[in-house]
Amino acid sequence: MTTRVACIGECMMELSERPDGSLLRGYGGDTLNTALYLARLGVAVDYVTALGDDPWSEEMLAAWAAEGVGTGQVRRLPGRMPGLYIIRTDGSGERSFHYWRDSAAARDLFSGPGAAGTRAALAGYDLVYASGISLSLYGEAGRAALAETCRAVRAKGGRVAFDTNYRPRGWPDKAKAQAAFRDAMAAADLIFASSEDLAWLYGREGEEEVLRHHGRCEIVLKGGGSPPSVRVLASDDDVTVQAPPVEAVVDTTAAGDSFAAAYMAARLAGRPPAEAASCGHRLAGAVIGHRGAVIPRAAMPDLPLT
Ligand code: ADP
Q1: What phi and psi values does residue 262 have, to the nearest 5 degrees?
Q2: Best mutation site among 131, 196, 210, 222 for ligand 1, i.e. most ligand atoms within 8 A of its Cβ?
Q3: Which of 140, 142, 243, 257 is most enclosed, with most CB atoms within 10 A?
Q4: For position 41, what pLDDT does the model report?
Q5: pLDDT tens for residues 103-131?
Q6: What's the whole-number mean pLDDT along residues 87-103?
Q7: Which of 6, 61, 12 is nearest to 34 (CA)?
Q8: Which residues, listed in sequence order, are joined to residue 238 by a DSSP beta bridge?
Q9: Residue of the nearest CA to atom 16 in ligand 1?
Q10: Which residues of 57-90 are buried (b: 16+ CB within 10 A; e: fewer)?
Q11: What is the mean pLDDT of the chain?
């Protein structure tokens, strides 16, 4: 039987400002990147979010479908729009991100008419993946609905994966984020944690926050260093896997998102954790060698997934 994966989150419209002030349109989102790379690696994956009924929402749907990402669980909210951000690049090449996202349709995935249908559908997946950015979208009530949905997934024998993508601006205060991340880690079967995110959130005890789940679930702890390494703690394993050096790091956008996709694809294909980490490194290594989150199909590495 095919394993079905759901990635939950938000994809926004992206406008990159060029030196003459004109704007180049694209779209982007952490969990969407993971869904897209999962699809490219042959995994049956649906992106679960809410969009509006505007032309750009239509374009996003068409683009995701063209990448093989399932769109059957995308809710369409009449009169609403996707979130938007502009990337401004200063004279020294430093990029800054500016957001219009408070009214984005994706924030209402777990509220209003239709939310019950989304929750019921999610409970039927074999693996449900969300990130810290996903958590920041929904507010207390939405997060509680998501947590309950994750319990339903697990009660049916499915698994839950959580990636600690922490973006401070998505949270009203740090305490809310700390509590939400604690709950999400406690509810997950697979945690992707970056030591940098953990340190920002919890200070020096950051790694302790995730390591307390060792033995209960699988943990992929992404460390620093160049090239970086990951420590994988699974039932019988505690291994550190170094990333191979990447000759020219062009743009690290989507490094962690693509790593998670290849790691999960390899685990779903029955590969042991250390091999899955190597697959993660190989895909992430290719992604950071190219500009943008999504690399050309021809640049996808040939991973041992069968
Ligand atoms: P993010 O901040 O997006 O979570 P990370 O910095 O944790 O990304 O990197 C994710 C993965 O990308 C690493 O585990 C590694 O596989 C790859 N990677 C990132 N930086 C480098 C680098 N300098 N050299 C080689 N691989 C890298």
Answers
A1: -70, -35
A2: 222
A3: 257
A4: 98
A5: 999 999 999 889 999 999 999 999 999 99
A6: 91
A7: 6
A8: 233
A9: 281
A10: beebbebbeebbbbbebbbebeebbbbbbebeee
A11: 96
Q: Report, as an integer, the average pLDDT of 161-187.
A: 97
What separation in Å is there between the alpha carbon of 284 and the centre of ligand 1?
Answer: 6
Q: From ligand 1's centre to the CA of 262, what distance in Å?
A: 13
Q: Which residues contact 78 (CB under 8 A, 6 or more apart)?
A: 52, 53
Residues with CB under 6 A from ligand 1: 194, 222, 226-228, 230, 243, 246, 249, 252, 255-256, 259, 280-281, 284-285, 288
Integer-rounded Cα Rg, in Å, for the chain is 18
Structure tokens at 121: 């559908």
> For residue 199, how many C-alpha atoms fall within 13 Å in the half-sphere facing its CB?
8
Enzyme catalytic residues:
257
- For the CA of 285, the closest atom of ligand 1 is 26
Amino acid at 167: R
> Which of 103, 154, 161, 102 shows the shortest CA–CA distance to 131?
161
Atom of ligand 1 nearest to the CA of 222: 7
From the CA of 217, how far away is ligand 1's center (Å)?
Answer: 23
